[in-house]
Design goal:
By secondary structure, this protein is an alpha/beta fold. It has a five-stranded mixed beta barrel. Helix 9 (227-236) links the parallel strand 10 (217-221) and strand 11. Helix 4 packs parallel to helix 5, helix 6 packs parallel to helix 7 and helix 8 runs parallel beside helix 9 (227-236). The longest helix has 19 residues, at 377-395.
Length: 663
């Protein structure tokens, strides 16, 4: 007897769902049918197989041993597709006890191989499960036992990552699988990987590993021919002394002296009574009891009730490109399809959840026969989200969401998994704004209506925009002063000017205030959407009207002219228009001077058009600058030689021009 020795049994020890289901199927059919045979041992456990044989279940190793009329149970490992066809030809009745997790693999490889994908499978080539899986691959499969074999096959075959998939035997070692995935990602980046190791297998190996790290001796109970039992021993061996036994009697041949803590686990094909016998025997050998294993608690967990629509909490155990697998604390394995992870169809499952995440879920469908349950994170999020929506309505607070769809009459916004309808009249600040511009954008809005019965809500972006504009407008009028410079966005352009959004309030820049130069239309200077800097010309707080100017003082052409030109200076000018009393010539952009008819030539001029044409370049002398009236007088004559006759003629011409101008 050992003193101070503690025995700990793993809670995941023993029958997995698939094995338990297969054994029960055989027992149930023994009571209903005669000549029940199993194609190969129903599970890899001599004790169970022997017990079933006593009840009349005959194990056959080949199809040649089966006769017409017999009931053939396909064991949990599954068989190749052609085996079903041969059994039908024999005339046997088929009862399929293939583990649902294995069936899922059959479906994956069948679909992908038919599409021309290369299929890589991690597992034991001689294991019946692998033989069955390969039988569903249209062009065969590439089976590897570890990362080294995988590397060799990838190097030899030159797979195309976009046309290859990789998965594992349901009982494959999780440690080896992790190494294989790293190798595949290194050599075939972009390869599609399916997580197919059974949830129970993964949990059992993880728990056994942890228990082995804490124990002086680890006992693994199970049949020595069982693949998953051997892998369980392999997982524990790096950490402590490990013993594999098939029954409790074998324990007496081992020496447990010096062991302070002994761990017990069992393979998926080990029945509960063998585990119980191992516990009792170890209690006799050590004189202690197993303090960690509670059969009542385990039983309660096994029969934990779930139903469609129930809200449950689960832990993510694996994630692939099409789904997430979750442990919800029952014997079921939970699946969350990609479509039930998020409202956004563009995101991948790995973008939404990670292994180890604890999440809230809604039960959508229960398949007790196959031990599976379909779950929805999206619906659970929506329930929580609707509570937030309801609270936002009650408290009149702003919510933030993403526009996911443009629909008839408005848009849909997603808020914590809830779809909120925003009518077109409430979606934009202006009616002519396009709804399509909102798509995929994050927006703020208020909840204006809730339908509790249908769990639907109506929102308004415009309500938030109005509040924001009202607040900005109030702030603007509090601080705005004539002469201040502000930045705004051009919202609309009309024939008479441009309206500029100053952030909550609009101001008008009239056509004459847009440029120092002549323009045909305001759009010659600004366009809708332009960000411009303007000066406040006038504020009418009573009518809330604001006049603005886009003209910059330092760009005033008159100021530039005065700084750079003076009376007596000779300049080159361009004739821009002709009148009866003279011609106007442009000295610089925005500045014209008058060449009076009397100053065009040193002789009498009857018609200005006889000597000058629009567009003509002429040299002129600045004879006068009237800064008050902003007028400039120019002269060509001042640059020409004068004579008395010419002077008298010019004076006559001037008198005629003055009379014409007066008329």
């Amino acid at each position: 007897m050992l003193t101070n020795c503690k025995i700990c049994t793993a809670k995941t020890a023993g029958f997995c769902f698939g094995v338990d289901r297969a054994v029960k199927i055989v027992y149930n059919n023994l009571d209903k049918r005669n000549q029940v045979v199993t194609l190969g041992p129903i599970i890899h456990n001599k004790n169970v197989v022997a017990e079933l044989a006593l009840r009349g279940a005959v194990t056959v190793d080949s199809l040649s041993e089966i006769a017409a009329g017999q009931t053939v149970v396909i064991r949990s490992h599954g068989v190749a597709k052609n085996v079903y066809e041969q059994l039908e030809q024999i005339g046997a009745e088929i009862i399929d006890a293939t583990c649902p997790f294995v069936v899922r693999i059959h479906n994956i490889v069948s679909e992908k191989s038919a599409q021309g994908f290369s299929v890589l499978i991690a597992g034991d080539r001689k294991h019946p499960e692998i033989e069955g899986i390969v039988g569903y691959c249209k062009n065969g499969a590439h089976v590897f036992a570890d990362a080294n074999q995988l590397r060799e096959q990838i190097t030899a075959e030159h797979f195309q990552p976009e046309k290859a998939v990789m998965l594992a035997q349901t009982t494959f070692s999780t440690d080896v699988w992790a190494e294989c995935k790293r190798t595949a990602q290194e050599l075939l980046p972009g390869l599609t990987v399916f997580e197919t190791i059974c949830n129970a297998t993964s949990e059992r190996q993880n728990e056994a590993r942890t228990l082995a790290q804490q124990s002086d001796v680890m006992i693994i109970a199970g049949d020595r021919s069982s693949s998953n039992t051997k892998k369980l021993k392999m997982v524990c061996e790096p950490y402590t002394k490990c013993i594999l036994i098939e029954n409790a009697k074998e324990l007496y041949q081992y020496d447990f002296s010096g062991a302070n803590r002994i761990g017990i686990s069992a393979g998926a094909s080990t029945p509960a009574y063998i585990i119980k016998e191992v516990q009792q025997t170890m209690t006799e050998i050590t004189g202690t009891v197993d303090e960690d294993f509670n059969f009542e608690e385990a039983l309660e967990q096994t029969f934990k009730k779930i139903y469609t629509g129930k809200r449950v909490t689960g832990y993510i155990t694996s994630v692939n490109n099409s789904e997430a697998i979750v442990d919800i604390g029952t014997k079921h394995t939970g699946y969350i399809p990609a479509s039930e992870l998020s409202d956004d169809s563009s995101v991948k499952p790995n973008d939404v959840v990670k292994v180890g995440d604890e999440i809230s879920l809604i039960v959508m469908k229960i398949d007790d026969q196959n031990g599976m349950v379909t779950l929805s994170k999206r619906k659970a999020d929506a329930m929580v989200g609707f509570e937030k929506i309801r609270k936002a309505k009650e408290e009149d607070t702003i919510v933030t969401g993403t526009i996911t769809n443009v629909v008839k009459g408005g848009v849909l916004a997603s808020v914590s998994g809830v779809k909120v309808f925003i009518p077109a009249s409430q979606a934009t600040a202006r009616r002519d704004d396009k709804l399509e511009d909102l798509l995929k954008k994050t927006v703020d809005f208020k909840i204006i209506e809730i339908n509790e019965g249908r769990q639907r809500a109506v929102g308004s972006i415009r309500a938030v925009l109005k509040e924001q504009r009202d607040a900005a407008k109030a702030k603007f009028f509090e601080t705005a002063e004539v002469g201040m410079t502000v930045t705004g966005e051009v919202k609309s352009v009309t024939d008479y000017g441009a309206f500029v959004d100053l952030g909550g309030v609009d101001g008008l820049v009239r056509k004459s205030d847009l440029s120092w130069y002549r323009i045909k239309h305001p759009s010659d200077v600004v366009n809708v959407g332009d960000k411009i800097e303007v000066t406040v010309k006038d504020i009418d707080r009573e009518t809330e009207k604001i006049s603005l100017s886009y003209k910059k003082p330092d760009e005033n052409p008159w100021e530039v002219f005065v700084k750079n030109y003076e009376v007596g200076q000779v300049v080159s000018a361009t004739v821009v228009s002709i009148t009866s009393f003279g011609a106007f010539a442009q000295i610089m952009k925005g500045i014209d001077g008058l060449i009076h008819i009397s100053q065009i030539a040193n002789k009498r001029v009857e018609s200005v058009g006889e000597l000058l044409k629009v567009g003509q370049q002429v040299d002129v002398k600045i004879t006068e600058i009237d800064t008050e009236r902003k007028r400039i007088s120019l002269s060509i004559r001042a640059l020409l030689p004068e004579d008395e006759d010419a002077e008298e003629a010019a004076e006559d011409t001037a008198e005629i021009a003055e009379e014409a101008s007066a008329e």
